[in-house]
């Protein structure tokens, strides 16, 4: 049974009410040359563990997860992708920036 994506509407007395879902809100992925990606390390609220944080990607969740998968394979570690951010376990800033620049992304290492 397929789930419908309904948002907090139980009943409406409005005869002109047209229910809409959040489908179609997917952001279009910008070409790599137009992306402005920043990479830095972070260890706040992570139990002292260091992660490489990749922010600034503009695009769909599928493309974000695909890029995260490529970066996790490159570094040989785990990570996650959500809310427009990619988390890669460990300090791999140099490797990530080099990879993104070879792919044509506008990427730079930020402080951390």
TrEMBL record:
Keywords: Initiation factor, Protein biosynthesis, Translation regulation. Residues 44-104 form the SUI1 domain. The keyword Protein biosynthesis applies. Belongs to the SUI1 family. SUPFAM superfamilies: eIF1-like. The keyword Thylakoid does not apply. One of its GO terms (biological process) is translation reinitiation. GO terms for molecular function: mRNA binding; translation initiation factor activity. This is Translation initiation factor.
């Amino acid at each position: 049974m397929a789930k419908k994506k309904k948002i907090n509407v139980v009943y409406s007395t409005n005869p002109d009410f047209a229910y809409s879902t959040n489908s179609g809100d997917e952001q279009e992925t910008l070409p790599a040359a137009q992306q402005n990606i920043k990479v830095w390390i972070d260890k706040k609220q992570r139990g002292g563990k260091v992660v490489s944080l990749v922010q600034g990607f503009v695009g769909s969740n599928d493309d974000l997860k695909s890029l995260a998968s490529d970066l996790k394979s490159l570094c040989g570690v785990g990570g996650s992708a959500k809310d427009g951010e990619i988390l890669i376990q460990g300090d791999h800033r140099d490797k990530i920036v080099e990879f993104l620049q070879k792919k044509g992304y506008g990427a730079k290492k930020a402080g951390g």
